[in-house]
Specification:
Length: 336
């Protein structure tokens, strides 16, 4: 049910008390099955306040039938978006004017949380292309954060195109994380304004990642884009949208990847070993001093144990940013 009334919930997450203020909630059960709207130009909102747009690049096409509320066995109603029957075409459904809700959040709730359920579906493409995007828009027209799903290889990628580089993270939160087919997955995105870190997690798969930050602070809308490649219509389903303002990111999200790595010895004289027991591939290690300056970078090819020589660094505390195939881990070290 759609709620635009601000209210406060108490959530107990693994011993961490988090105050969640729900700004928007929609599970589609109160919306009548059928087409979402009658306007595919994105001007007139349809059911639930969703705006629908079809991009077919001057090819005549009416896309209203591509946006539907349908009954899903065992779930109630869900949102289904089909790519247009035009090669290279794109269908877009958007929630707009969310900035007012975010700007009226309770003081101290400076983490924006966006969560929803996504059905991965079957193979529908004959090429390695993105069949679904979720873009977060901010005032000023910037689109800093995008969730991509490539249907043929079944890979999720989460990218922050305008994010600042480390120390807080890299521009890609995830790079090609494999997900199962025909499965409902919950996506959770946290934008921590106080600490300027972006987090993304798929709890059921136990994967999390972090990224850098972007300059814009005024959240305005979220857009779901389903596109068609090779004249095949991609079909994706969504459910249980919740947008909240919370006071902190759950520790389980922040610490998941970092907890998988061992760093020793610590404190260190010259060489530090970075390893894990879960075959998480290390792609890059970047070392930052306490001012946030990058002082050392090394790239690797699919290794899960690294010996890093830091003998040339001055004594003091440093952060290791470990970029992996599962996301980003951060570990603190001390150079003697």
């Amino acid at each position: 049910m759609k709620n635009k009334i601000l209210f406060v919930l108490l959530l107990l997450l693994k011993g961490q008390l988090t105050y969640a203020q729900v700004l928007y909630s929609e599970n589609f059960n109160n919306l009548t099955p059928g087409n979402v709207g009658t306007d595919d130009t994105g001007i007139v909102p349809g059911k639930g306040g969703w705006y629908t747009t079809s991009h077919t690049y001057n090819i005549p096409y009416t896309g209203n039938n591509d946006f539907k509320i349908i009954a899903e066995p065992g779930r109630g109603n869900v949102l289904q978006v089909t790519g247009p029957a035009v090669s290279g075409g794109r269908n877009l459904i958007a929630l707009k004017n969310l900035g007012l809700l975010w700007n009226n959040r309770t003081a101290g709730n400076n983490v924006l949380k966006i969560e929803y359920d996504f059905f991965t579906g079957n193979t529908v493409f004959s090429s390695n292309s993105n069949s679904f995007w979720n873009q977060l828009d901010f005032v000023g027209g910037t689109v800093p954060l995008t969730i991509y799903y490539a249907n043929l290889p079944n890979l999720i990628r989460v990218s922050c195109s305008t994010c600042t580089p480390p120390p807080h993270g890299v521009r890609d939160i995830f790079q090609n994380i494999a997900v199962p087919r025909n499965t409902w997955l919950k996506f959770e995105l946290y934008l921590d304004y106080a600490n300027q870190i972006s987090y993304f997690t798929i709890p059921s798969l136990g994967v999390s990642g972090t990224s850098g930050w972007f300059s814009s602070s005024n959240f305005s809308e979220t857009r779901l884009i389903v596109e068609t490649i090779a004249s095949v219509q991609a079909v994706h389903k969504f459910d249980n949208f919740v947008i909240s303002a919370v006071d902190t990111v759950p520790l389980s999200t922040q610490d998941f990847i970092s907890s998988k790595f061992n760093v020793f010895p610590n404190p260190i004289n010259d060489v530090v070993t970075i390893t894990n027991n879960e075959s998480i591939s290390i792609e890059q290690i970047q070392v930052f001093d306490i001012s946030g300056k990058s002082v050392k970078t090394h790239s690797f090819t699919n290794v899960n144990e690294v010996q890093l020589n830091i003998e040339n660094l001055a004594s003091g505390s440093y952060l290791l940013q470990i970029k992996t195939n599962k996301g980003i881990a951060v570990k603190k070290i001390v150079k003697k």
